[in-house]
Amino acid sequence: MKKIKIVETASYVPQKIVTNDELSQIMETSDEWISTRTGIKQRHISLGENTSDLCLHVAQELLEKSGWAPESLDLLLVATMSPDSYTPATAALVQGKLQAKNALAFDISAACSGFIYGLKVAEKFLQQGSTKRVMLIGGEVLSKVIDWSDRTSAVLFGDGAAGALLESKTSGDSDFLGASLHTFGEFGDKLEAGKTEAISTFPNLKEHYIRAFSMSGRDVYTFATHRVPESIEEAVSKAALTLDDIDYFVLHQANSRIVTQIAKKLAQPLTKFPLNIAEYGNTSAASVPLLLDELVTQGKIKRGVKIALSGFGGGLTVGTQVIKY
Ligand code: ACO
């Protein structure tokens, strides 16, 4: 079985920052409500840059850091719930602009678990056949998708992109130690974005219905605080480790209270659960790699450190990948 190495990480967020106080000037909310309920203080909002643009920045930085040529990529994956369009895939747009002409490119739709699902797809490709080099990016421009008239969800989200380069190797240990992924499609209506409806008459040239964001926050909260600890325990056990062996739990940044509850359920110290939600809000598929890249850049995550990467969200989905960085 081929081994997998995580080669580089990179991230990019749009320049424009919107604080809680600024939001409270356009909707019935307050910094106090948002901070205490979620831990969010601000978010980055894209003005003019679409999802593929954010991802392209990440892709270019990954190539620069690694010294890899674009044509050496075999697979380019973008995890997103806010693609530029139904088709072409955002990954295909990035592949084209990057001139990664040998890379197969497609998107992964698993909302905030997208990066973890992407790691699984990458692992499968790298373990078989001729795929040697994979670029995986989680990227979102949620500001174009969310319903800005709904204060219960609008205050939660931000834009950004981050990703990693993965490579197969024939010797040494694998950086991928164990995983747990589950989908609960029966709860699909708990979090929806960009929902379409079939036309009701034919021919019909006028009716184009796309619904913006809707979420049952309480249900997603309950789902996360139950399913994420289970997923982490399953992945850690598959990696033949104990929770105490894990140095960092890099969790999807949806709500700092969710992270605190998960730490409590796992009986692990909060210091092992880094947070950056205050600065970025919930960036969905970008959130886990954004935090991972931040910790690597700050020197907090060094080679050899064991990490549980875990995401949850629309689908509903949940996924954990245990890695040795
Ligand atoms: N500002 C001020 N007041 C607000 C706001 C706001 N932005 N939003 C809601 N309120 C009010 C409500 O109207 C309600 O008022 P009422 O009691 O008078 O009716 C009150 O605050 C409490 O509202 P709740 O919805 O009960 O607040 P709760 O404590 O449940 O927090 C939250 C809401 C933050 C959304 C929480 O449920 C949560 O974090 N859920 C998880 C969501 C999540 O993780 N989503 C991401 C999934 S990832 C993905 O796939 C994209």
TrEMBL record:
Region named ACP-binding: 253-257
Active-site residues per Swiss-Prot or TrEMBL entry: 112, 252, 282
Domain comment, as recorded: The last Arg residue of the ACP-binding site is essential for the weak association between ACP/AcpP and FabH.
Quaternary data: Homodimer.
Signal peptide limits: none
Matches recorded under PANTHER family: 3-OXOACYL-[ACYL-CARRIER-PROTEIN] SYNTHASE, BETA-KETOACYL-[ACYL-CARRIER-PROTEIN] SYNTHASE III, CHLOROPLASTIC
Single GO MF annotation: 3-oxoacyl-[acyl-carrier-protein] synthase activity
Domain of life where this protein originates: Bacteria
Record-annotated Beta-ketoacyl-[acyl-carrier-protein] synthase III C-terminal domain positions: 237-325
Family: Belongs to the thiolase-like superfamily. FabH family.
Protein name, as recorded: Beta-ketoacyl-[acyl-carrier-protein] synthase III
Keywords linked to the UniProt accession: Acyltransferase, Cytoplasm, Fatty acid biosynthesis, Fatty acid metabolism, Lipid biosynthesis, Lipid metabolism, Multifunctional enzyme, Transferase
Catalysed conversion reaction: malonyl-[ACP] + acetyl-CoA + H(+) = 3-oxobutanoyl-[ACP] + CO2 + CoA
Presence of the UniProt keyword Repeat in the record: no
SUPFAM superfamilies xref list: Thiolase-like
Gene3D superfamilies in the record: 3.40.47.10
Gene Ontology BP annotations: fatty acid biosynthetic process
Pathway it works in: Lipid metabolism; fatty acid biosynthesis
Domain Beta-ketoacyl-[acyl-carrier-protein] synthase III N-terminal, chain residue ranges per copy: 106-183
Record localization: Cytoplasm
